[in-house]
């Protein structure tokens, strides 16, 4: 640790800081870390990219950076790397309390995340979208509306493309749509989104944050640098989100599927209504939305409101929301066999994310596949929903016993172990018109690299069954 000497803090400008000749250490060689390394390198910095993985396990994209002059440091991120360092950038998957980060702060070395770094090189504006569930869909919707309206900018963040890799789409008139996770928001400093949207709050990532309060505090940071001229959006239907009211510094708007809001987006007579400084505007009918489920109505309200406040006209909003297709692994229809329909909702990595998926289908027809790595959370509501709506529960995962015990008595429960076995077992016991739903309520890391690999494995299992029964 620090020898005790007080060191003068390094200072960087909040816009277009001078990195030329500076030494930047990026911790974590995943997508965000590599994007941060490229950005720092492009602005003249000397870059070290450190990762816990050994050299043989570094991704090819990281090895490509080495050819551009990035120094790769495998096997960890010791404090010794801080010698003559001016800036540390943490990837989202790296905890903010690692020893190296603490030592850097003690030495006066700034510790940012990739979003903070990218924001300082951005001329356009950002609409940041966070929440426990739905943020990927709302980000994609918002971005699609903005681009349909001819507004420049990128769409990404935690959704597929890191912010630092979107800057080739940046202009002074750009409006970027960014999904922002709690991990990304932990490492902001001056980042100020023009629009800040928090969709909902439920326990998630407690394996990292420890408590709901700490998790919520990370989410609330999306509002902390906003001021006059910015806007904030909260969900009036989500009681836990009320805790964010006191954090809002910008012009507050709310969304609701249940009541008319004073300022925001709501439903009246089966139609989406916006009430903003543009006046009251009627949008498309709810029945014209392409995504199923009440949660996706809420998502559509948030996207419509954010895009309108970002400058998109009503006709662009209507056009996108009436044609928007579900994102991969998010209540995605992947096939039908013998009139049994299969849905891939692998992105549902916590109990609260699985709840709306169950509401999208007729009670008693659902064969639900759950299990994986429990991130911590409140399971009571999901147990009740399974009892009321699910016909059979099929449990996967490396350690299925806790899940079996949790849902004991709620419905018929089958321990399947693997996803292939669960998919085949679900079809074997399904009747005409039933639904097989992969909505695991858990992270995937016990058996898969990520939720995408799990979703792809489900698709492949359904495809193989389809060929067998063709």
Q: How would you describe this protein?
A:
There is one protein chain. The chain is α/β, with parallel strands linked by helices and 470 residues long. It has helices spanning 31-42, 60-67, 99-106, 114-119, 135-148, 182-185, 206-209, 212-220, 294-309, 314-321, 351-359, 380-389, 401-406, 419-428, 451-469; strands at 23-27, 46-50, 71-73, 87-90, 111-113, 125-130, 155-157, 175-179, 195-198, 231-235, 251-255, 264-268, 271-276, 279-285, 332-337, 340-344, 366-370, 390-396, 412-417, 435-438. It folds into 3 domains: 23-109, Rossmann fold (3-Layer(aba) Sandwich), CATH 3.40.50.720; 118-321, Mur-like, catalytic domain (UDP-N-acetylmuramoyl-L-alanine:D-glutamate ligase, 3-Layer(aba) Sandwich), CATH 3.40.1190.10; 332-469, Protein-Tyrosine Phosphatase, Chain A (Alpha-Beta Complex). 30% of the residues lie in helices and 21% in strands. Helix 13 links the parallel strand 18 (390-396) and strand 19. It starts with 22 loop residues before the first strand and ends with a helix. The model is unreliable at 1-6 (pLDDT under 50).
Concise summary:
This protein is α/β, with parallel strands linked by helices and 470 residues long. Helices cover 30% and strands 21% of the residues.
What number of domains?
3
Mean pLDDT: 94
CATH superfamily of the largest domain: Mur-like, catalytic domain
The level-1 CATH class of the largest domain: Alpha Beta
End-to-end separation in angstroms reads 64 Å
- Please state the overall shape, judged from the principal axes of the Cα atoms: globular
Radius of gyration: 23 Å
The biggest beta sheet is recorded as: 9 strands, mixed
Strand content: 15-25%
Helix content: 25-40%
- Low-confidence segments: 1-6
Structural class: alpha/beta
Kindly report the spatial arrangement of strands forming the biggest sheet: 7-8-6-9-10-11-12-13-14
| Name of the CATH architecture of the largest domain | 3-Layer(aba) Sandwich
């Amino acid at each position: 640790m620090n020898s005790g000497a007080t060191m003068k803090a390094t200072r960087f400008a909040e816009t277009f800081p001078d990195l030329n000749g500076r030494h930047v250490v990026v911790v974590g060689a995943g997508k965000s870390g590599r994007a941060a390394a490229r950005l720092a390198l492009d602005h003249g910095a000397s870059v070290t990219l450190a990762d816990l993985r050994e050299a043989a396990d570094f991704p090819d994209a990281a090895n490509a950076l080495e050819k551009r002059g990035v120094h790769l440091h495998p096997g960890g991120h010791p404090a010794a790397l801080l010698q003559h360092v001016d800036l540390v950038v943490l990837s989202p998957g790296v905890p903010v309390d690692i020893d190296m980060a603490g030592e850097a702060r003690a030495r006066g070395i700034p510790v940012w995340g990739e979003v903070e770094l990218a924001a300082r090189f951005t001329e356009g504006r950002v609409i940041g979208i966070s929440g426990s569930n739905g943020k990927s869909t709302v980000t994609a919707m918002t971005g699609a509306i903005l681009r349909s309206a001819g507004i420049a900018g990128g769409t990404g963040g935690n959704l597929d493309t890191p912010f630092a890799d979107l800057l080739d789409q940046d202009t002074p008139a750009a409006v970027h749509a960014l999904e922002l996770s709690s991990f990304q928001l932990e490492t902001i400093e001056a980042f100020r989104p023009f629009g800040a949207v928090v969709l909902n709050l439920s326990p998630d990532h407690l394996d990292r944050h420890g408590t709901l309060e700490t998790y919520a505090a990370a989410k609330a940071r999306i509002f902390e640098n906003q001021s006059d001229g910015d806007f904030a959006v909260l969900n009036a239907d989500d009681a836990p989100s009320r805790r964010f009211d006191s954090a809002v510094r910008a012009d507050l708007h709310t969304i609701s599927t249940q009541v008319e809001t004073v300022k925001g987006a709501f439903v009246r007579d089966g139609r989406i209504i916006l009430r903003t400084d543009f006046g009251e505007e009627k949008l498309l009918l709810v029945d014209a939305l392409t995504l199923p489920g009440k949660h996706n109505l809420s998502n559509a309200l948030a996207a419509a409101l954010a895009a309108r406040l970002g400058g998109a006209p009503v006709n662009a909003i209507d056009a996108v929301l009436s044609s928007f297709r579900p994102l991969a692994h998010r209540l995605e229809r992947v096939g039908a066999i013998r009139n049994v329909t299969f849905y891939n909702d692998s992105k549902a990595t916590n109990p609260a994310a699985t709840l709306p998926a169950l509401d999208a289908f007729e009670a008693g027809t659902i064969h639900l596949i759950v299990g994986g790595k429990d991130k911590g959370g409140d399971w009571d509501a999901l147990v009740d929903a399974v009892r009321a709506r699910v016909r059979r529960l099929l449990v996967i995962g490396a350690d299925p016993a806790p899940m079996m015990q949790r849902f004991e008595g709620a419905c018929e429960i089958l321990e399947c172990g693997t996803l292939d076995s669960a998919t085949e077992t679900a079809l074997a016991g399904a009747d005409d018109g039933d639904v097989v739903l992969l909505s695991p309520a858990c992270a995937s890391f016990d058996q898969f690299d990520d939720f995408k690999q799990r979703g792809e494995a489900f698709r492949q299992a359904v495809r193989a069954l389809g060929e067998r029964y063709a």
